Every structure is written in structure tokens, then in C-alpha cells.
Here is the input.
Amino acid sequence: MSPEQEKQLIGLREAAQKLLAADYFVALGVARTASLEDVKKAFVGAAKTWHPDRVPAGLEDARPLLTKLFARLELARATLSDPARRKQYLDDLAKPAAAATAGDISSAEATLEFRKAEALLKKHDLAGAEAHLRKAVQLAPSSVEYQVLLVWLQVKPESSRSRLGELASDLDRLIGRESTLERAYFYRGQLRKRLDQLDKAHADFVRASALNPSNVDAAREVRIYTMRKEKAGATASAEEGVGGFFKKLFKR
Here is the structure.
């Protein structure tokens, strides 16, 4: 390694260490009032600089540190892109350092378990996801987000209407504690849909879409409901028109 490369490596490591020690907003270079689009753009820009696969030739020794930093940047993006998680993070930042330190380890472990659960959920490993999620809830019992997902994992294809009603009530309670959690509304909407409470389900999907415009599943449910309503209205109008015609005919 040349003296110039060694100097670059030292500078790269120092910059990476500073970002690792910074809060999520500073790490991404956004204000605390940044929009979801701002966060997304900032992450894309940061990825171009800090992705471990973009390490310049001769500076490969920095790759393990950049891998660690990039994982933190991904966590920052995920946290700041979710309204409920951002609120919780801001609340944590506002706590005195001593008070925050006491729960740092459990909070970090809970976050790790939650991420494992989400990863297994994407692979349709529901049993594995539930096991990790229960650990996350034990480590962070005050997290509404973890409890919401745990409730959703209790929903089975064969669940009875009474059981679905119980789970919907559980989500009612959790939404009462945290009213900005998009997942809670989306999951409750799915439960209400299965319970044939279509108008209420629609309201939940609308709320989920408003909280997270990127939730394509919620947006699709809103479109489907709207199309069905329009179709039903058109059918009713047509039937009323035919009925009105015969009424006039027989009055003659």
C-alpha cells in the first residue's frame, strides 16, 4: 500500500467511525423533519459512497468496517421511513443518556430479533418468525410494533370468525396505544375484510395508505373497494332505470 493509499484508508475509517457513532438523521444527512422521499434519496446517495462493494482499489481493508456502516445506514433508512418507528426513535433520542443506556442492550437485541422475524416472514417461515418475534416482545414489551406483528401471525386460514374478532380487538387496543402504525391498520383491514366488515376494512386500508403511500397492497385494496362500489352503483342505476320504464309503461 502506498503512502497515499494509507492516508486515504485512515481518512475513510475515521469518516465511517463518525457515522457509526452518529444518530440516524446525521448518518443519512437529513433533518429530523425530513420527508420519506428525502430519506430515500439520502440513503441512495449514502449507498453510492459507503456500499462495501464500492471500496476503491487498494483500500479493501476498510470493507469490514463499511459493511458494518452500511448495515446501520439500512437500519436508519428503515426506521426513518416508518412513521411509528421514527417517532419511537425520536422519543429515545430525547431521553437522558443515562436512562437510555440502561435499555440499550435489550433494545438492540429486540431490534435484531424483530429483523430476523421479518426476514423469515418474507420466506414464509411463519413458525420461525413467530419464535423470534416472541423474543423481541419479551425484550421490548412496550413496543406496539412488535406486538402488532405478533397478533397478525396468529391469523390462520382456518381461524374461526370468533377468533378473527378477538384478534381484531387486540389490534383495536394496540391502535389505541399507537395511532400512527401503518401495519396495524392494514392488518386490521384484512381481518375486517374476512369478517365481511367491508366499509370498516376500507377505512383501515385508506388510513394505512395515508400513513405509508408506498404500501401498494393497501392501495390495491382501496382501488378494489372503489371499483366494486362503482360497479354496484352502476348496476343499481340500471335496474332503477328499467324499473322506472315499466312503471311508466303500465301507468298508460
About this structure: Residues 110 and 136 are 4 Å apart (CA to CA). The domain at 1-81 is CATH 1.10.287 (Helix Hairpins). The mean pLDDT is 84. The longest helix spans residues 216-251.
